[in-house]
Amino acid sequence: MDVSEMSEEKLDKKKTLALRKKHIGPSCKIFFSHNPIKIVRAQGQYMYDEKGQRYLDCINNVAHVGHCHPDVVKAGAQQMEVLNTNSRFLHDNLVLYAERLQATLPDKLNVCYFVNSGSEANDLALRLAWTFTGHKDIITLENAYHGHVSSLIDISPYKFHQLSDVERNQSVHVAPSPDVYRGKYRADHPDPATAYADEVKDIIDRVQKKGGKIAAFTAESLQSCGGQVIPPLGYFQQVAEHVRKAGGLFIADEVQVGFGRVGTHFWAFQLQGEDFVPDIVTMGKPIGNGHPMSCVVTTKEVAEAFALSGMEYFNTFGGNPVSCAIGLAVLDVIAKEDLQGNALRVGQHLTDLLEKQKEKHPLVGDIRGRGLFVGMELVKDRLNLTPATAEAQELICQLKEQHILLSADGPHRNVLKFKPPLCFTTENADLVVEKIDCILTELEEALGLKSHNSPGVEDRGKLKLLTDENGHQSCGGFAHKREGSPGLPQRQETKRLKT
Asked: What is the three-state SS of the chain?
């Protein structure tokens, strides 16, 4: 069967949506719920709907080297024709992939456990830490997200923030997000890295006074769901020192940001400097370019302690020959096409363009990121940093109408996040920012906001904000009059994209 046959629409869109509502759990949300996109194929940085309309994908960090990359597809198909079995049998793909993967990491990180998702990887990382240390308490970051299984919901404030203190796991402790834009210690602080690290030390002291013991500190190397947060240099080193002194381990979650996305380095934790090496690294999403696979890499000491626990670790599909063939192909493509270098070059170009938007548009509060992991935070005023949540959602909806896919995250869902496939080009960046510029101009005109020196938009144009079933603000919630802004459609009745 050729690609054209496979990408043909089997059901009309209404039937697909009706069957989804009937058979798929209602908590499984869909992009643009008021008018969802039906995607039937993808290639590179583009996705195509059932009518052949092309969308530029600015958010899919899973299709790391590009959707349906032919080399990756070929590697998986060829191995699947020969053998796919579990890792209890010897197979070259497993050990060759482990060797290639380890070569990208510091020497001490040399033992691999292959699993199938970022959630599995982070869950196993916790087990390794608990077993090695004999301790139970975990320190996580504000707004963090590490996965969907129960152990990870416990350490993901992004998910459990709505729970009462009684419902939360009492052995999990939340440190402030090291956000130097709107966090507790900001860019004007003389030493935000030390100040944020001292917050972790204070948590350790409080836990120990109550008789607890720290098993691990876990953090995304760059926070993604938390709002594209870039920790200040030196933060991880100081946190690691405090945690290790307390007998704990440092877990770096690279599920979102690894494999060259940051441009200057292959792993985002390396941005902190050569003197920082985690005890455990988890990886997922981009590792298989859409194929379900992931990995935990740790030290020999941690792995030996896990083995001595007496409980064998076996994962039916983790490290199977097909997954490892795909993983090897992804590494080959990253190297062959210089995608890490492309992330650096195109990411810098994108960041430069967005910085110019910040100079031009008062709604743009901050631009931050590394490589092709970039955040653009929208605010109603730059003094109080009031989140421009509705404006962010309006911008996303209008981009979708112009066939560009972007999303927002962060605790206020006002941070536009760029994390496209690494084959993203400077021309793609030019197009996206050009569209953003036009939409922001129209939004600011509709709100009566004229220049970046304006006091703010909170009282300029009132927004009637709808809410979806989760209580989030709605997409297209602008209900004020828009004379002089014919390009801004009335969409008061529509529901907001949950991205």
From this structure: CCHHHHCCCCCCHHHHHHHHHHHCCCCCCCCCCCCCCCEEEEEECEEEECCCCEEEECCCCCCCCCECCHHHHHHHHHHHHHCCCCCCCCCHHHHHHHHHHHCCCCCCCCEEEEECCHHHHHHHHHHHHHHHHCCCEEEEECCCCCCCCHHHHCCCHHHHCCCCCCCCCCCEEEECCCCCCCCCCCCCCCCHHHHHHHHHHHHHHHHHHCCCCEEEEEEECCECCCCCECCCCCHHHHHHHHHHHCCCEEEEECCCCCCCCCCCCCCHHHHHCCCCCCCEEEECHHHHCCCCCEEEEECHHHHHHHHCCCCCCCCCCCCCHHHHHHHHHHHHHHHHCCHHHHHHHHHHHHHHHHHHHHHHCCCEEEEEEECCEEEEEEEEECCCCEECHHHHHHHHHHHHHCCEECEEECCCCCEEEECCCCCCCHHHHHHHHHHHHHHHHHHHHHHCCCCCCCCCCCCCCCCCCCECCCCCECCCCCCCCCCCCCCCCCCCCCCCCCC
**Which helix or strand (DSSP H or E) is residue 220 part of?**
strand 214-220
Q: Residue 165 — pLDDT band, cuts 50, 70, 90?
A: confident
Q: For residue range 47-67, what is the model confidence (pLDDT) as tens digits? A: 999 999 999 999 999 999 999
Tokens of 77: 């198909």
Of residues 166 and 414, more confidence is placed in 414
CA–CA dist 74, 62 (Å, integer): 18
